[in-house]
Amino acid sequence: MINSREEVTNLILSKKVAKGIKWSEVAASIELSKEWTTAACLGQMTFSKQQAEIVGNIFELPDEAIAWLQIPPYKGSLPTAVPTDPLLYRWYEVVNVYGSTIKALIHEEFGDGIMSAIDFSMDIKREKNPNGDRVDVTLSGKFLPYKTY
Fold first, then answer.
1. Residues annotated as catalytic (active site), given as ranges
2. 139 Cβ contact partners less than 8 Å away, ≥ 6 residues apart
3. DSSP for 97-148?
4. What is the pLDDT of residues 28-49, one digit of tens each?
5. Domain topology for 112-149
6. Eight-class DSSP state of 42
7. CATH 1.10.260.40 fits 5-68, yes or no
8. Distance of CA 70 to the CA centre of its chain
9. Whether pTM exceeds 0.90
């Protein structure tokens, strides 16, 4: 019996390691980005029935796990308020250092509002550089102005 989406994520991760599966391969199977697909496999997005069945087949999941993949998850995957993993901490640091700058520039350019994380896309690429390869991350979210009423 599976009691949580986290248990399904653990099943997926176990099979990923055991079978040597790449996230980009899973993404190609469901014809979506590797970024969204990875987030979904890690328990942060909801798969459609068809997508869940394909993912279930790839990771050899039981029917109960496939059903869990179709339930909207509880979003937010960090185990602590301040991340301890060095890579995740650097993202936390980016927001702490540049968050107010990002906010100020969005408000200056667009007005009072927010960037959506729902109407959103992300692209992560390796950028070759003679001084050491770089991580190129593009975040694109719809601007949502605050309304007056």
1. 90, 93, 116
2. 115, 120, 121, 122
3. HHHHHHHHHHHHHH-SEEEEEEEEEEEEEEE--TTS-EEEEEEEEEEEEPPP
4. 999 999 999 999 999 999 999 9
5. Cyanate Lyase; Chain: A, domain 2 (3.30.1160)
6. T
7. yes
8. 16
9. no
